[in-house]
Design brief:
Number of strands: 0
Order of helices and strands: HHHHHHHHH
Shape: globular
Oligomer: single chain
Number of helices: 9
Structural class: mainly alpha
Strand content: under 5%
Largest sheet: none
Distance between the termini: 45 Å
Amino acid sequence: MDKFFDLDGPVYRVLAKIWGLMVLNLCIILTSLPLVTVGVSLSAAYAVCFKMHEKNDLRVIRNYFSSFKINFKQAIVFSVCHFFLLLLLVIDGWYFVQTSQKITVSMIGVGLTIFFLLLITQYLYAYIARYQDSFKTILTNSMKLSFLNSLTSFVLVGMSVGILVLMVLSSIFFVFVMYISIFIGIAFIIFLKSFLVLNVFKKYETMKEK
């Protein structure tokens, strides 16, 4: 029974990982405050989570800011582009909803563009966290991964969109998610997503080695 609670026991490992995710969550929030740096924060968070999954490395602060610095130049370019493009699409979508009583081709186009953008994003910042490539290669491979692994891509998008939908439909759930997000929620979602994305990456890494 004593081994169950010692430093190598499952209880300690779980508590250490929870604490690590709480620290990671704080890092993500602080570095995402300018909004345009959200993509850089995501990339750094994925780098931390990959090390958690592969090496059980819980040096969160060190790994986070090391990755943040290394991947800043590439991630910030995509982050700024995504921020303004998504902002424009949301404004367009809101305008179409307010000015039209029925679904139009323009509304469908905006919706599909947002969905396509979300699909690519599921892999893009994780790709930056794991590989060193040119901007063109990063974007191209992220698009390929999103389509070649459609089931995983839909699950990844669903994890984010599903929570947002529930927040809109339920005020209680909205408050609950906002409260949890302050402490661990954001990092926990990225931790789950990183597990799925890492499996996709490893599949192609294994194929390349053969």
